[in-house]
Specification:
This protein is of the alpha/beta class. It is built from 7 helices and 7 strands, in the order βαβααβββαβααβα. It has a single domain, classed as 3-Layer(aba) Sandwich (Rossmann fold), CATH 3.40.50.300. Helix 5 crosses helix 6. The model has no long low-confidence stretch (mean pLDDT 91).
């Protein structure tokens, strides 16, 4: 089993990199999104939930994520939380059953900020992108997938996304074994990453 961490700023192209790897690798791949492990904010009023800083490491339930990775490495299935961006809460009735696989990819903006999580990873990849490119992707994604207005997205970007990227995410790039500039559109980098994974698997 190979555990791969794919980090990078919001809108950097992490999801595209994951998809390209799934297309190129024949092994069964399980993807563990960091976003599924946001802390449940159901105890707060709806307007207070929306005002929380979701780009700070403290917003993630690292203990549960690390524990579930250990369980997968031990060959045990886990129950992954289902998190709603619209309500900022976990589904209290349902989870996603995740089974062990030859390749497990942990993907998220903050995953390299957690030392205990880094210790579980065999390969750490940082997806890098220009700030302007990231912002345009963030605007498009948050409007379509999260029901935000342009004004809401830009306000959040200036208030939390940009400063948290500078404080936490960009510095975590130093932990990466491989850096992929310009996300999934960098075919050379994707090919090199694919070859590295195959070598690590002994293919």
């Amino acid at each position: 089993m190979l555990l791969i961490g794919i980090a990078g700023g919001s809108g950097s192209g992490k999801t595209t990199v994951v998809q390209k790897l799934k297309e190129r690798l024949s092994e069964h791949i399980v993807v563990i999104p960091q976003d599924s492990y946001y802390k449940d904010l159901g105890h707060l009023e709806p307007d207070v939930r929306q005002a929380q800083n979701f780009d700070h490491p403290n917003s993630i339930d690292w203990e549960l994520l690390v524990e579930q990775l250990k369980e997968l490495k031990a060959g045990h299935a886990v129950e992954q939380p289902i998190y709603s961006y619209l309500t900022c809460t976990r589904d209290s009735l349902n989870t996603i059953t995740v089974y062990p696989a030859p390749i497990i990819i942990v993907e998220g903006i903050l995953i390299f900020t957690c030392e205990k999580l880094r210790e579980q990873l065999d390969i750490m990849v940082f997806v890098d992108a220009d700030d302007d490119d990231r912002l345009s992707r963030i605007v498009e994604r948050d409007i379509v997938e999260r029901g935000k207005t342009v004004q809401q997205v830009l306000r959040r970007y200036e208030k939390t996304v940009k400063p948290m990227h500078i404080q936490f995410i960009a510095p975590s790039k130093r932990y990466a074994d491989i850096i992929v500039p310009q996300g999934g559109e960098n075919k050379v980098a994707i090919n090199m990453l694919t070859a590295t994974i195959k070598t690590a698997l002994g293919d």
